[in-house]
Amino acid sequence: MKVETTTQYKTDEGIVFSLSKITLMESDRGRLRELHFGEAKRAHYQVNSMVVDMYDRMQARNLPCLLTVRISNPLTRQQADAINTVRGNVAKGVAAASGGVAGKVGGLGGPVIGWASGAVVTAGMNWYLKGALPSLHAGDVLISIEGEVHGGIGPQHSGVTLVIKV
């Protein structure tokens, strides 16, 4: 197990992340539970389990696997509001695009059917996405784990995110 990088960086929204890059080999699998991510505080075991699951998902075998773990500092109210605004904009954009396509397809049945199908799909997608994308609050911690393996059948990449609620 080789720790490549341990650093911190700040996003445009002012969120500070602790970044750890670790290269693992197959022989290191048994030692993954020994890793300690102090930034996760009480969710340390959850983060550790996610790291083990990510390594197992990558099926690296004898190839090196690069795991990148990002853990944010607890969010402030302003940071959570900024992310929630982006979340709302994403939901509206995807819903509008889906509704536009549905309206065009429904328009083949006539203008009223096209308008109705577009409106229903837009509202439905907006409702679904707002429920699927989590609302963040002050004190929440964002965690992202990415795995990368080069070689074999080609480069493989996978990621998982988690929000630790307060």
User: What is the count of β-strands?
Assistant: 5
Tell me the quaternary state: single chain
Order of helices and strands: EEHEHHEE
Count of runs of 4 or more consecutive helical residues: 3
Global geometry = extended
Low-confidence stretches: none
Strand content: 25-35%
Distance between the termini: 32 Å
Helix content: 40-55%
Output mean pLDDT.
Answer: 79
Tell me the major beta sheet: 5 strands, antiparallel
Count up the domains.
2
Q: Radius of gyration in whole Å, from Cα?
A: 21 Å
Helix-strand category: alpha+beta
Write the layout of secondary structure elements.
Layout: E1 2-10, E2 16-24, H1 44-58, E3 65-72, H2 77-106, H3 111-132, E4 141-149, E5 156-164
Antiparallel strand pairs: 1-2, 2-3, 3-4, 4-5
Helix pairs in contact: 2-3
What does this structure look like?
The chain is α+β, with helices and mostly antiparallel strands. It has two domains: 2-75 and 139-164, no CATH class; 77-132. It is 40% helix and 27% strand. The chain contains three helices and five strands; from the N terminus they run ββαβααββ. A five-stranded antiparallel beta sheet has the order 1-2-3-4-5, covered by helices on one side. Strand 1 (2-10) and strand 2 form a beta hairpin. Helix 2 (77-106) runs antiparallel to helix 3. The longest helix has 30 residues, at 77-106. The radius of gyration is 21 Å and the shape is extended. The two termini are 32 Å apart.
Write a concise synopsis of the structure shown.
Helix 2 packs antiparallel against helix 3 (111-132). The model has no long low-confidence stretch (mean pLDDT 79). 22% of the residues are buried.
